[in-house]
């Protein structure tokens, strides 16, 4: 295996065709984060996006998109906005971590949503958790019946609150909104949520807002063949649940073919008793088939709504490959401290130091 590192801006049309071909042949690489368009969108607002090209016998065997930090550290494309990471290559391709890093001039490789199925990195996994998914390929009614049969009692409460909202307000759902003011409202709600939870606001960095708006602007109405919609290869989807013609909940996600990835959901706190965010997700699932969507990825996390709505999940890993002993020790110490606090009976009283640790981590993360 040979490796060549280039700027993503130097990707030729032939390389892009090969990238797309690998994605078609690799069902495990179905996330929009693995599309070349996502890396290109990030590269348009950040200067340090690179691509390692894997070549075997002269043929292109794969791609490794990454952001170079501090000269010799690989981080996910999009930094904290990335919910999936992987080397873009067919499952059977044989590549070695140390050879890839050495060829790219890397001393460290950090990841937090790495596909756990890529066995080469398994010795470096610190923990593995599911990115929870909703399989809605059989239709909305079959999905709801299946979740109820599985004992997802919280779903019944979500449906009850959605009916209550519809009785007391004029409710309307929009799959994709083209009004930029609605997107701005979503960003304002998310910023307030971050501040309320004591987390750093990702939208305080201008490049993140520019990135979301550029992906949102890519959406175009999907053409259809007869009754079958043709889903986009890569597009932003801004879905809205209105109550009395005002946004009650807004969701921004990315669609890649039959998969819709949930990225940024938020709702009007004044309508919190109706759980409009859950109602919006259910409306998305109900209309998914009309837009060529068969699966909704809710992302990594143990939030109650994800556990209630998800039918399965894709294992993703957090970890790092570190060739510097001191840095490796510091990284282990950070994770051990964080995990100890999370598992401790004192978890709730320890929320303030946990927030401080998160702020420290965010401060040292790439800007």
Q: Summarize this, please?
A:
With about 375 residues, the protein is an alpha+beta fold.
How far is the first residue's CA from the last residue's CA? Answer: 33 Å
* CATH architecture classification of the largest domain: 3-Layer(aba) Sandwich
Give a short account of the largest sheet: 12 strands, mixed
Overall pLDDT metric: 90
The succession of helices and strands, N to C, reads EHHEEEHEEHHEHHEEEEEHEHEHH
CATH class of the largest domain: Alpha Beta
- The stretches of 5 or more residues where confidence is low (pLDDT under 50) are 356-367
Helical fraction: 25-40%
Shape: globular
Structural class: alpha+beta
Number of strands: 14
Radius of gyration: 21 Å
Walkthrough of the structure:
The chain contains eleven helices and 14 strands. By secondary structure, it is an alpha+beta fold. The protein folds into two domains: 2-130 and 315-323, Gcn5-related N-acetyltransferase (GNAT) (Aminopeptidase, 3-Layer(aba) Sandwich), CATH 3.40.630; 137-293, Aminopeptidase, CATH 3.40.630. It has a twelve-stranded mixed sheet with strand order 1-2-3-4-5-14-6-13-12-11-10-7, sandwiched between helices. A two-stranded antiparallel ribbon has the order 8-9. β3 (59-69) and β4 (73-75) form a beta hairpin. α5 packs across α8. The longest helix is centred in the C-terminal third of the chain and has 19 residues, at 325-343. The radius of gyration is 21 Å and the shape is globular. The two termini are 33 Å apart.
């Amino acid at each position: 295996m040979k490796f060549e590192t280039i700027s993503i801006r130097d990707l030729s049309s032939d390389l892009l065709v090969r990238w797309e071909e690998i994605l078609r042949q690799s069902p495990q690489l179905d996330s929009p984060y693995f599309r070349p368009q996502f890396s290109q969108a990030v590269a348009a607002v950040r200067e340090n996006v690179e691509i390692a090209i894997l070549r075997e016998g002269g043929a292109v065997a794969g791609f490794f998109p990454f952001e170079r930090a501090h000269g010799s550290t690989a981080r996910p494309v999009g930094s904290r906005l990335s919910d999936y990471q992987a080397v873009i290559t067919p499952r059977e391709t044989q590549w070695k971590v140390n050879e890839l890093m050495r060829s790219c001039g890397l001393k460290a490789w950090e990841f937090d949503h790495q596909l756990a199925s890529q066995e080469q990195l398994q010795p470096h996994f610190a923990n593995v958790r599911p990115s929870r998914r909703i399989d809605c390929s059989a239709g909305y009614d079959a999905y709801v019946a299946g979740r109820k049969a599985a004992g997802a009692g919280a779903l019944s409460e979500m449906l009850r609150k959605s009916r209550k909202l519809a009785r007391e307000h004029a409710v309307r759902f929009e799959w994709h909104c083209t009004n930029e003011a609605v997107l701005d409202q979503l960003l304002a709600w998310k910023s307030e949520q971050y501040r309320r939870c004591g987390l750093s606001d990702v939208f305080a960095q201008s490049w993140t807002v520019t990135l979301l708006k550029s992906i949102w602007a890519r959406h175009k109405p999907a053409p259809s063949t007869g009754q079958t919609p043709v889903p986009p290869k890569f597009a932003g989807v801004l879905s809205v649940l209105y109550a009395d013609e005002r946004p009650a909940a807004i969701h921004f996600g990315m669609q890649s073919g039959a998969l819709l990835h949930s990225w940024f959901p938020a709702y009007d706190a004044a309508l919190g008793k109706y759980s409009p965010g859950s109602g919006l997700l259910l409306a998305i699932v109900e209309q998914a088939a009309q837009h060529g969507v068969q699966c909704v990825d809710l992302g990594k996390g143990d939030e109650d709504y994800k556990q209630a709505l998800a039918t399965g999940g894709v294992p993703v890993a957090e970890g790092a490959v570190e060739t510097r002993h001191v840095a490796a020790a510091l990284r282990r110490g950070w994770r051990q401290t964080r995990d100890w606090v999370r598992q401790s009976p004192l978890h709730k009283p320890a929320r303030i130091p946990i927030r401080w640790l998160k702020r420290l981590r965010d401060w040292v993360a790439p800007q």
